[in-house]
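To close the section, here is one more complete example, presented without commentary so you can practise reading it yourself. The ligand is beta-D-galactopyranose.
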Amino acid sequence: MSHSLTRIAAFSAAALIGTAGLAACGANDTGSDTGSGDGASADGGGTIALLLPESKTTRYEAFDKPLFEAKVAELCPDCTVDYYNADQDAAKQQQQVSTAISKGASVVVLDPVDGNGAGGMVADAQSSGAQVIAYDRFIDGADYYMSFDNETVGEMQAQALVDAMGGSGDILMLNGAPTDPNAAQFKAGAHNVLDSTDGVNILAEFDNPDWSPENAQQFVADQLGKFDPSEIDGVYAANDGQAGGVVAALTGAGVAADALPPITGQDAELAAIQRIVAGEQAMTIYKPIKIEADKAGEVAVALLNGEDVGETTDYNGVASFIFDPIVVTQDNVGDTVVADGFYSVEDICTSDYADACEAAGLS
Ligand code: GAL
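Output:
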């Protein structure tokens, strides 16, 4: 697992550095033409802090970080990205923001562990003269916000689950961390669909405090003390990490891998894409993270330069950029994550998945 992730990260970074090298020539030309005089501007370098919330979800270290760094390097070769990961610890993240400010960050790109509790960090950064971009998770009072349409994510997951169950069934529901504002949106979107679909019954529901696969596995194992696996027609898991925990609990209780009920997910993690190809997970949500990380890099450099960030949309009073999520099932793995270069067929079709890949037309 960690070997594959390292490989993905290396692959992403290498692919991007190639592109960045080309694009940086253009950026340099433009920079010397415009000749901004601000000492903290992109022309003279500048520091952008990037603060991500955790590392159990693979996207942050494998995609968000390298993609963001590559975009900033492309647009502003002299800029520094000061990176922090909070490991799901809100107090640690607060300390990291203070450190970033004291090191002179002019722009703070913050994906908060605790969305509601992040106002103080925004105020601290702003009072030091920095501007704050709320990255992926909304923060009231931020200067900018970017994310995917999170309520639609929840609706897509739930609809895919209902469809995979044939229209109705008894389900377990595993939501994300209550401190993550996105989790509330995924949950609300999912409930919109589940609560209005006749014949769907939620046997038990769980808000996972840290999104962890371990908690998800434990929750399902506990439910298997109350329900026979045959009574569970489907599982709404808000993300792929939890879906992995659900699969571990069910197979650990003796359910055969080819007899698992439909299970949802999110993030298009490599392990989830492999489970989808193998028929062990019904779907995931693919968020083309490059779009989001690129936009964050562009906005951060524009802010350093005092330039316009382009057209925004209003989200709860914050100038925002909202992107579209994509459903991935066994039918469209090739047309989505593979076509986009998010994973290669070789990444997905390791020896354990060779037969499933061939059956799915992916080899
Ligand atoms: C959310 C994020 C998701 C995912 C989730 C944990 O905030 O939008 O992509 O990372 O946390 O899986």
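Once you have examined the tokens, check your reading against these statements. Residues 1-40 have pLDDT under 50 and may be disordered. Residues 57, 59, 136-137, 176, 180, 182, 211, 239, 241, 266-267, 287 surround beta-D-galactopyranose (CB under 6 Å).
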